[in-house]
Amino acid sequence: MVHVADQETRAAVIEDERLVEFHVERNIDDQLVGNIYVGKVANVLPGMQAAFVDIGAEKNAFLYIDDAITPKEYEVHDKDWKPNIREILRQGQEILVQVKKEAFGNKGPRVTTHISLPGRYLVYMPMVNYVGVSRKITNEEERLRLKEIGESIRSEEEGIIIRTVAEGVEAEYILRDLQFLRTQWSRIQEKSKSITIPSLIYRDLGLVPRLVRDLLSDEVKQFIIDDGPTFRRIKEAIQFSAPELTERLYLYTDKEYIFDAFHIQGEIEKALKRKVWLKSGGYLMIDQTEALTVIDVNTGKFTGHSNLEDTVLKTNIEAAVEIARQLRLRDIGGIIIIDFIDMKEENHREKVLQILQEEMKKDRTKSNILGLTQLGLVEMTRKKIRQNLGSILLRTCPYCEGTGRVVSEEVMKERIEREMKTYQEHSTFHAFFIEAHPYVVSHLVGNNQENLHRLERELGKKITVKGNPNFHFHHYEIQFLT
């Protein structure tokens, strides 16, 4: 379901009555993934086998050598051929690139010269001689049929990947999709010849049409939109490409916020928390760092009904299902380490890993589960393409700077006392007035005002304190009373 507002568009994907994906698009100009640019090589880094490319964005894009070598160059060399980056690129060179990853942290976007244009039924690759079929299509007979269709409709100098949504689709619809993408590619080539450098020459679809393209199929029961103009545009587009699916589109017209009406807002807020409760009473702790994400599984309130090993297995199985959902929902990418509760039985470990793998197959983003380390930790990776949910909806705390911790009340008490002592010899005032957070004030006063009386004796000044709940832990004020 989709909520369209003036400042942003939000979309939620529901499976089995549970939220599994959540997307936010605030400004389409900020969305880079899928966009194609004519850029200029800013500098070449032979030590890193990479180059920085100016595409007109805030930060230069990063181009690694594997993304710079064209498929045709690989065809005339050995598969292990790896030239120096300076043999491929030179500073100032104009180059056609496509963004494959958004900018993260201090890193600019990552780009590739291997252009691909996604359509409804296939992905068009104008520089590759290849036909592939989505791995999610498991019926061998259907895979063979689609492979043959692909081979029959493409030319020798182009490649296509048949998408999952093409399963059972007639050849004429797939051909129509290919012809549309060929036309797009021709326009991109023409535009690239007559523009200033660097320039954007192709922008990928916005959030709503992209979800329609990638998700709307016979398996989708409803695609609900709460904005009339957006609904009508999508319906018109679907009537052209997949008219049988127009009946799956619904316009939401109630006054209540759509995500509240379908009980989604609460799930979104839960997805921003560190702790995730399981139905059994166990819980997950999800900690994200710049380098990797760590997920810890705990039994929590769940004590089981038979023995410890059975309790551990049930908790880990439930956790495996929930972890797969959380990775999709939060859009967590990169290296992921999972610390399941220790299992003694080898078949139990295999079962939990198998369930995790099966659940991750539901994810449209590519992942790879590497297995258990010697310490019993599960290693896996998930492709990082866009900013994760936390990066979009949250900001780093200006007080703790992302550590999740602030200075304790005891430390703040000592800090206030030291500052007061620097003023104790001033004779122009006879008393202090201290205002701070109530927790800090309680430590400053002490039991039965014991600490406050001690300070007054040491400083030779009267001290009045006031707790202000609107003050942050780090904030306090000292005033001098004459």
TrEMBL record:
<dbReference type="GO" id="GO:0019843">
    <property type="term" value="F:rRNA binding"/>
</dbReference>
<dbReference type="InterPro" id="IPR019307">
    <property type="entry name" value="RNA-bd_AU-1/RNase_E/G"/>
</dbReference>
<keyword id="KW-0540">Nuclease</keyword>
<comment type="similarity">
    <text>Belongs to the RNase E/G family. RNase G subfamily.</text>
</comment>
<dbReference type="GO" id="GO:0004519">
    <property type="term" value="F:endonuclease activity"/>
</dbReference>
<dbReference type="GO" id="GO:0000049">
    <property type="term" value="F:tRNA binding"/>
</dbReference>
<protein>
    <recommendedName>
        <fullName>Ribonuclease G</fullName>
    </recommendedName>
</protein>
<keyword id="KW-0694">RNA-binding</keyword>
<keyword id="KW-0963">Cytoplasm</keyword>
<dbReference type="GO" id="GO:0006364">
    <property type="term" value="P:rRNA processing"/>
</dbReference>
<dbReference type="GO" id="GO:0046872">
    <property type="term" value="F:metal ion binding"/>
</dbReference>
<feature type="domain" description="S1 motif">
    <location>
        <begin position="34"/>
        <end position="120"/>
    </location>
</feature>
<dbReference type="InterPro" id="IPR012340">
    <property type="entry name" value="NA-bd_OB-fold"/>
</dbReference>
<dbReference type="GO" id="GO:0005737">
    <property type="term" value="C:cytoplasm"/>
</dbReference>
<keyword id="KW-0479">Metal-binding</keyword>
<keyword id="KW-0820">tRNA-binding</keyword>
<dbReference type="InterPro" id="IPR004659">
    <property type="entry name" value="RNase_E/G"/>
</dbReference>
<dbReference type="Pfam" id="PF20833">
    <property type="entry name" value="RNase_E_G_Thio"/>
</dbReference>
<dbReference type="InterPro" id="IPR003029">
    <property type="entry name" value="S1_domain"/>
</dbReference>
<dbReference type="InterPro" id="IPR048583">
    <property type="entry name" value="RNase_E_G_thioredoxin-like"/>
</dbReference>
<keyword id="KW-0698">rRNA processing</keyword>
<keyword id="KW-0699">rRNA-binding</keyword>
<keyword id="KW-0378">Hydrolase</keyword>
<keyword id="KW-0460">Magnesium</keyword>
<dbReference type="Pfam" id="PF10150">
    <property type="entry name" value="RNase_E_G"/>
</dbReference>
<keyword id="KW-0255">Endonuclease</keyword>
<dbReference type="GO" id="GO:0004540">
    <property type="term" value="F:RNA nuclease activity"/>
</dbReference>
<dbReference type="GO" id="GO:0016787">
    <property type="term" value="F:hydrolase activity"/>
</dbReference>
<keyword id="KW-0819">tRNA processing</keyword>
<dbReference type="GO" id="GO:0008033">
    <property type="term" value="P:tRNA processing"/>
</dbReference>
